[in-house]
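One-letter codes give the sequence; the fold follows as tokens. An example follows:
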Amino acid sequence: MNVSRSGYFNWRNHQPSRQERRKKAIQERILFHYYDSKKIYGAPKITHLLRQEGYNIIERTVGLYMNELGIQSTVIKKFKVSTTNSNHNNPIAPNTLNQHFTTTAPNKVWVSDITQIPCREGKLYLANILDLYTREVIGWRLYGHMTNQLVLDALNDAYQKKRPGKGLIHHSDRGTQYASNEYREKLEDYGMVASMSRKGNCYDNACAESFFSVLKKELIQGKRFKTKQQAYDEIYRYIEFFYNRKRIHSAIGYNSPIQWEEKFYKGHSA
């Protein structure tokens, strides 16, 4: 092997330095957080989690360690601009939200949207309602149709869960479902103020649409669900157990939506 006897025994008897032990420990934690997030988290989020554990480390070092380990995060691309069927004669609400995507408390502004979910067994549509402050998905429904009932049931789900006070702004696009008489009447019953995007400008509803971009990149990743039941089960687990309770967001201080909401109410009850 062209290795000297002394060189072999020096290698065999080598004791890892303190720096080497620290690097190994950090890399083990990087691997844990990477696979615990289903290969979603990249260097920024993992750096934050490592600092919470007491490691004094910068993002660049974490990125280098991830490269050495041969792992990388799921990259979230900007959401695709999509079109909405706004060819109807129903009343259109003014754009009250007007791209003001910050608010001061939970249950002040909700945003809603619909997307199609790929499934071999047939068409599926997902309607969601997201709280703009916490980023929590507070109401959602997955049906094989895109009728008014889809969005109505998602709205009812959110209302029963949060019971917000009157005056909440509900923002959506100009789709026929959101402009329907049934939906507008339900918003009025709940004391909510309807707001709708401008025609042809889906960036007015960017927060709702960007959630779908995250969902499709992190969960679906180009695959097509075999059955509707499989689609429901996997989306349920993603939203209720990972996205709402565990997935940290840089926009809300590297907290999960549930954690951010709990911190808000804890701070205002003191």
About this structure: The two ends are 70 Å apart (CA to CA). Residues 109-269 form a domain with the Nucleotidyltransferase; domain 5 fold (CATH 3.30.420.10). Strands lie at 109-117, 124-131, 137-143, 169-172, 193-196.
